[in-house]
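Morning!

This is the sequence you dropped in the shared folder:
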Amino acid sequence: MSSPLDGNGAVPGDRSPLRARVAIDLGAESCRVSLLRWQGDRPAIELVHRIPNGPVHADGSLRWPFDKILAGLEDGLRKAANAAPEGIASIAVDGWAVDYVRLGKDGQPLANPHCYRDERTLATKEAADREAPPEWAFAHAGAQPLRINTVYQLLADPAEGIDPHAPWINLPEYVLYRLGGRRIAEYTNATHTGLVDIATGDWSEELLTRLDLPRDAFPPIVPAGTVIGKLTGPLAQLPAFRDTDLIVPACHDTASAIAGIQSDLDGTAYICSGTWSLVGTLIPAPITSREAMDAGFTNQGAASDGFCFHTNVNGMWILKQCLETWRQAGRTWEFPELIALAAGRNDFPGTVNVDAPPLMLDGNMPALLNEQLRSNGHAAIDEVPGNDALFARVIFESLAARYATALRSLEHMLNNSIRRLHILGGGSLNQLLTRLTAERTGLPVETGNVESSTVGNFAVQMAAAEARGGPLHREAVRRWARELCENPECGVVNAVNAD
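The structure's back. Tokens below.
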């Protein structure tokens, strides 16, 4: 058993009870505030507050309602304070990448942040590709040159009258900034911008010059586990929040999720299954070949060392958009019921390319799926109430097929075999998709913690407390993830075999 450390690095015998910790996980569908408290010398995680989330259309743009998110997070932090009279040692925030807030001279946001799915980057990516061709940008930055990347969003801001010199900050780091921290960019999150030199780990001066992006708008990059200040403001007046550190974990939720895997990843691929499905593995050095770019893979910083090498697959976004279409038609579904009905629909007409551009946008998703079915030579599905589960089966079959092709590409680039799969995130609860994935890939599949990003967030906080300002050690992060997941209250791991 590890020695749980409090915020000052003391061992358990020095005082009791040990102080709690808070993890905030920003998700595209919900934002969560979780509390880690000690049951004797064992950590236990409790979800104390959940805030529904989703992009909204406003003034011709697709944006995140971040003012409402911040208000909800304050409610969650007050609940955490009330639940932890022993005090809270630290708060850390992870979330989705690429989106950001622009700040005015008063340090306040100029507007609610755009959602990465907004189409404003279509033109800026085309223009940027002429100055920094995709193959060059990939070799230089290691990030797949997707139009959702921060780089193309920053380039779109001037067309909306935004000063390109206005400081910006990614969303998880912005929450910590609002709580009293410094304006920084955490390394795992910065690598998703498409603007980090993969060789140096810092902002690429060459990319900034080529694209005429002002360096003074960029925050400094710091590693995961860095303490960036103390909680200040009204919340700091609560007894539980006196002397509370603000820590950047692996601010990108996927890097946090990978940090939350408790088992050895040797020979293992992961699928982070949520709005997006990220399929890949950990590697010690980046792979920036043309083959990797063409296969849609990207190199993103890991929590301690190495890189998360994965491809972005369109995920539960497709089903979420179907559910919204059906809701507007008066049909609401509980997810388990829909999955159970889909399991019995073996009469599905075929699969689609889940990464087809039309399926990335919001809209009437059943109609868009039918267009893709027809373009693949399959029969369309009648858009009637009795066929909702049939659409769901097409989505799950198509995702499993895409996972299989992604894994074959991964094995080829690694020149090594994948021996097992680890599925984490919300999709790990979908037993039908897990079974179909095992069948399509021929690999044993284990499903991890549905809140793996939160587990990884806490694991980094604990490893950072041990490091006492020094660099994080992967072994320490993995050990804390294992200890957190060994507690039944923190989740379980189930295995599904291909046979």
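Headline: The chain has two domains: 12-247, 261-448.

More detail when I'm at my desk.
O.
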